[in-house]
Amino acid sequence: MGDLDLSFFDWALVQNFLLKGLVFSVELTIVAMIGGIFFGTLLALMRLSSHKWLQVPAALYVNTMRSVPLVMVILWFFLLIPFLTGKPLGAEWSAVITFTAFEAAYYSEIMRAGIQSVARGQVYAGFALGLDYSQTMRLIVLPQAFRNMLPVLLTQTIILFQDTSLVYAIGAYDLLRGFTNAGRNFNRPVESFLLATLVYFVICFSLSMLVKRLQKKIAIVR
Amino acid sequence: MIEIKDVSKWYGTFQVLTNCTTSVKKGEVVVVCGPSGSGKSTLIKCVNALEPFEKGEIRIDGLSVSDPSTDLPKLRARVGMVFQNFELFPHLTIMENLTLAQIRVMNRGKEESIEKGLKLLERVGLKAQAPKFPGQLSGGQQKRVAIARAMAMDPMCMLFDEPTSALDPEMINEVLDVMVALAQEGMTMMCVTHEMGFARKVANRVIFMDRGEIVEDTTKEDFFGKPRSERAQLFLSKILQH
Ligand SMILES: Nc1ncnc2c1ncn2[C@@H]1O[C@H](COP(=O)(O)OP(=O)(O)OP(=O)(O)O)[C@@H](O)[C@H]1O
Ligand SMILES: [Mg+2]
Fold first, then answer.
1. E-strand spans in B90-148?
2. Using one digit for the tens of pLDDT, what is the confidence trace for B163-176?
3. Percent of chain B's residues with pLDDT above 90
């Protein structure tokens, strides 16, 4: 086993290889989180509705997404789009759409639990005041569901950030790709992967510590 | 004002309400009592169609609540309701609880809504609590906020489901005072309660329910003087013991 040499890791490397990747990873995480929570909430409302024609497709979608490995969804979507439209979409856009669609399934399960955690009486109280279904959901149930589920939603987002490294499979330039290219460039692949692991760990670990503190705060307010 | 005709309701195979018929006229105060599980909450929730029912008809101000062509949100907005468990909105301040439906349902301006809210809070003795959240108030205070919230909509009648249950004795009186004042102003009220003192003071009629049926529906004089059914007699003797 050769000695580890980390001397290639300097500010220029961060600027030339990593920054672009980090920015994309973070962008992808944020866009997929916002989109995923939005569509996930819609899916959750569909699953909780009393209409079969809304329930069934939503359940089918969520359960399918949750039964397929993410990397396959990424690959399928990436390969399928040029086949269907005749034009390739580009790895970055393809990643954004796939992650939003995939994460929506997971966020929807969280939001469903959140909506169910709000007492039925709250819905009655909204209706009794003359609010209609959509107002009752928007103004009364969802804000409470969202607050109750905030730590879980954020934890899911940390997992999402880790999963963004899978866009590697379609060649998008994310943080992991940045490390890989740097490793190749300086002929230090092992050190580069080591650093990549460390960076992902530090980011995710500190975020999950923050979520833990938030969780305590929310528990006290409630 | 409220007409309930032959209403029956089932939860699966379990019949909660059996042919309930009664009415509340304008300005009347009707007290509904009966043992636990007799269907009082269910009946009062049927009145503004929070619970669907399979048979019969309920009309408020002439409008059938189970008719699909009735604009339910609009009708409900004119019927004040106070729930057994308060059901204030915990994520909103007291003032926001009072103004939410005024703004969203009645299309009142924000300032007018706040003014109305302050007036009502003052009336129930809670003006200083306006910026607080429901969780920071005592049970009795929350109940009074719930009453004020319902009144903010200028309701034509009010439905109460055990407004004094789960409260300490001192708090019961603060809530009852508010309700007595309302009744004396001529508010039409249908009120599920075991507070027989309240019934004696302001009720016009008393309805006694047991096992989903309206067993007795008489003036309060008759109810307290000579209840006809054995079940009502038994219930009264139990309740008046303490
Ligand atoms: N969602 C439901 N599903 C099935 N059964 C129900 C449901 N809600 C109420 N019940 C049953 O219906 C009956 C009447 O309930 P309801 O709450 O109307 O009684 P109540 O007279 O208000 O009692 P209490 O004095 O305890 O509030 C009870 O036997 C109850 O168990
Ligand atoms: Mg009840």
1. none
2. 888 788 888 888 88
3. 63
Ligand number nearest CA of B208 is: 1
By C-alpha distance, the chain A residue nearest B101 is A129
Closest-CA residue to A32 (of A178, A124, A156, A150): A156
Position B93, amino acid = T
- pLDDT, position B190: 95
Residue A22 backbone dihedrals phi, psi, to 5 degrees: -60, -45
What distance in Å separates residue B144's CA from the closest CA in chain A? 15
Top pLDDT among B155 and B227 is at: B155
Distance between alpha carbon A129 and the CA centroid of its chain, in Å?
37
**Residues present in chain B in total:** 242
Count of A-B CB contacts under 8 Å: 64
ipTM: 0.91
Q: Dihedral of CA B23/B74/B160/B234: which sign? A: positive
Pick from B16, B40, B44, B239 the residue to mutate for probing ligand 1's pocket: most ligand atoms within 8 Å of its CB.
B16
Gap between the Cα atoms of A48 and A109, Å rounded: 11
- pLDDT of res. B170: 81
Q: Mean pLDDT, chain A, as a whole number? A: 91
Residue A181 tokens read as 């290219």
Residue of A121, A139, A147 lying closest to B100 (CB–CB): A139
A200 near A208, Cβ under 8 Å?
Answer: no
d(CA B82, CA B209) in angstroms, rounded, equals: 20
Cβ distance of B100 and A129 shorter than 8 Å: yes
Q: What are the structure tokens assigned to A43, written together?
A: 């899916």
Listed by start position, the domains of chain A span 11-221
The verdict on domain A11-221 having CATH code 1.10.3720.10 is yes
pLDDT exceeds 80 at position B226: no
Atom 5 of ligand 1: nearest residue by CA position: B11
Tell me if A154 sits within 8 A of A212, measured CB to CB: no
Mean pLDDT confidence for A107-129: 94
Task: Tell me which H or E stretch contains A80.
Answer: helix A70-85
Q: Give the residue-averaged pLDDT of A26-42.
A: 96
